[in-house]
Amino acid sequence: MSENELVTAFRDQLKWMPLPNDINLFRKYNPLKFFMHSINARIMNTYLDKLLEKRFAARLQNEKAKSTKRAKPIIDLALDTYLSETQQSGISTLPAPFKRSAIDQFKTFLFAGHDTTSSTACYIVHLLNQHPEALGKVCQEHDEVFGPDTAKTAQAISDDPYILNRLPYSMAVIKEVLRLRPPVGSVRDGARDVAVDFDGKRYPTDGFMVWPVPFAMHRRPDLWPKAEEFIPERFLVKEGDPLFPVKGAWRPFEYGPRNCIGQELAYIELKIFMVLTLRDFDIRAAYEEQDKIDGKDNSALTVDGDRAYQILIATAKPVGGFPAKVTKRVR
Q1: Closest CA to 320 of 329, 241, 296
Q2: Is residue 254 within 8 Å of residue 186, measured between CB atoms?
Q3: Is the pLDDT of residue 23 over 80?
């Protein structure tokens, strides 16, 4: 197997995820799907198991590594936490229950970081192309922070990663894209003291699973002035401004103590993507071109006039995988 066997199996697993509301019974219950799920799961589990054992063995050979102050990979953090909480620092083998749990968490972390970030990157270029004035502001900010020579941008980030914190407008764009195109939701346990009020009635949640829907919440006009409009500046104005977000209303990463632990990583990835591409490349949706290749006319398949509407396949993502045309930008 190649060194990318984990990524290969992971991506193949996504291809076999069921489509929402699929009426094709053969595709929905294709027996090959369950076989491929099993094969891909075994490949990923084996890969991560070997990696976990390798890191544990390295730890046993170098106990000093536990006290280093350098940032650690997630596997090392998992080992540190497990051994600290169970007070089993002297063990020579990892218990099977811990490995199973750790591997499941690693796969969740990888999936959440890969799928949602790539989907958001697609919608960043899509919405900026629909709003050229915002794209112009982003490129101007990047020129001011990194200089006009885009060939030096990657080295500037490598020399000073904290330079990415000097991009307030780019950050506002990311947040506004996540408001309009949130890639995920989450579920919560209901509680006796929590009820949902709707249409003059109150519904108890105790004993139910509650699924907050950020896509709908982010479009409530009572929470978001001009809710359907793309306005990154709403995340730059000061409190008291009509556009200032209501506390708790923006929740693409959920909200409170159970919010997404990977959101800061997502911000970094998306800002790096923006500064390394937007000034050099024009990336536009190419659904009409894809229709010609497929020999179909899907021009009527739109939501609010947009071909790149979201569909739910594990997470919300652009329909059709966001076919795109990339050209060198002339500045």
Answers
A1: 296
A2: yes
A3: no
